[in-house]
Here is the input.
Amino acid sequence: VLEGQRIYNVLASLPVPTVAAIHGVCVGGGLERSLACDHRVVTDSEKTKLSLPEVQLGILPAWGGTTRLPRLVGLQAALDLLLTGRRIDARKAERMGLASAVVPSAGLDDAVRTFIRSLQSGSDVRPRRARRRLLSRVLDDTAPGRWVVLRSARRRVMATTGGHYPAPLRILDILREHAGGSVAESLAAEARAAAQLLVSPVCKNLVHVFHLREDARKGTGLEGSAAAAATQARPVEAIGVLGAGVMGGGIGQLAAARGIPVYLKDIRHEAITSGLQHARSLFDKAVERRRMTPLEAQQAQERISGGVEYHGLSQADLVVEAIVENMEVKKAVLAETEASVTSHCVLATNTSSLSVNEMAAALEHPERFCGMHFFNPVHRMPLVEVVRGDRTSDETVTTVYRLALALGKIPVVVGDGPGFLVNRILGPYLNEAGFLLAEFASVEEIDRVARAFGMPMGPFRLIDEVGIDISRHAGAALHEGLGDRLSPAPLLIDVARTKRLGRKGGLGFYRYERGRAKGVDPEVYPELALVKDARAKGDARIEELRTSIRRRLVLAMVNEAARALEDGIVASAPAVDLAMIMGTGFPPFRGGLLRFADTLHPRGLLDRLHALHEVVGRRFEPAPLLVRLAREDRTFYQAFPGTVGA
Ligand code: NAI
Here is the structure.
């Protein structure tokens, strides 16, 4: 770190004006080098992106970025980049004063020469920051202003990270102590913080997750020699979507946004109209947030067409089925579709609970069929489970895998089985929350424990989010497929019998106003014949209770993940971890479900499970795989290393 700082200091103290010419991706140390120059001339190419992504890896920009960026663009604009690591384009860089000039990408050299000549002729090339509004200047440039900005930034960081991520807090510390002071002292603080953060478990876990994502991005969905052959796979230039409902509409919008023409087929004209409207509202939002220009949004919208006829699918290289969750209907519709598409067209189902193998039996070419399981809402949730059926061909797997990547998603290949991977692991966790609530704890307490562990929301908020009816349906399907250890908690059956639907109906375990949770609904306790637990408050055993809640929630997932590995639903521990992080928001700072489980070692897990098995019930009977790993003294990652994406 110090050596990097020393080199950039030499650059920063050169007696001649220095200009960095930036074209393409300029992130991390590269951007810090440009910050050590007097000016940055940036091309307007779509490929040009600037960021300081260190915070995403649990560290901070320590080659001068934390020190120089706020001095250049002001504290508020700098925090936006430093605390999120997000990427910005040339125009944004110019608006915030990071770029001194934006030039066309053709002829960058000439543009830089012209820029230097204008410097020599004494023209005003001060970045726009110099022209900021008065309030902004007060907040950035005075000690009380900075205090206000940093205090509210700290609050935001605590609210979004629960304090689990030390790097953004260290960045704020450095800015609090040094933003208005000496550069040398600020650099020294950067170096000290980097040295500490680099060896922290959070940093190691975030780097691990980064590698998992990269592996998925570079993968083909196939292993060994099949992976090499996958480079021949067919490109997907147009897709069809069956069913223009919540999921089908979302998939269509996503494909169109990514440049792929889509035909939405439904049996109802109204469904197609509302699918198109849903897409338009998302494009409008993207324009509002400047993620798309109005022209791009218009072009994307024009890529979506729809109708009730099959012939619109004749151009499709791939058709995703997202109609009602009913096996017989799906089989009939897939068979009809197969008869209407080209001989190379791949068919995929977005089913969340039905068997891919059973559906394949209705097809003439089961090898060209697999699952492509998106999560709701499609435009937000990053995971796609690519469900490989027994007869699915390599070409089909890799075609769907590639399409998921092209749609900006993270694909994980899984096998066919109840709930596939993510919902199967989530099932016992949500169910356990139901048992816990009936036994002794409050909705608030259970959700708080899950959030304190790092989950983005507690299990009851999640059930509300998914929909109490849909959760109940999914729970029943898992019970049927996996047997008694998935017997639904009676409380969850009871709540599904009430009128409560979750967020979409305005009332679930929580109350909702205009889609926003407004606290747990107190009426839910009498309605479910529960006494809101007095022990949860002020009791000396509260910590013990919390440990027990956390242990039961987390071990329910770990034990099921072990069974999914054992059943061959998933090939590797890294694949489980990536899928859980991307599909459920399992806390990245823990490195993944099984990486976290490995910190307890299978023997530790086994001891805890044995105890729960005895005290809580049979559903905690340890998975045979865990017993074996404990005996062999091997962790999940040792026994199932593998790479994601293969
Ligand atoms: P939805 O009810 O919103 O949409 C289904 C659409 O299919 C409706 O527009 C309906 O008119 C249409 N449809 C029914 N029969 C049809 C046929 N024979 N041909 C063409 N269109 C037909 O349902 P949703 O929520 O979009 O679910 C669709 C599929 O996606 C289901 O298999 C579901 O399990 C799965 N899924 C749902 C998730 C969710 O959270 N909603 C998440 C992941 C998967």
User: Anything to note?
Assistant: The pocket of NAI is lined by residues 242-248, 265-268, 271, 322-325, 329, 333, 350-352, 374-376 (CB under 6 Å). The two ends are 35 Å apart (CA to CA). The CA atoms of residues 281 and 287 lie 10 Å apart.
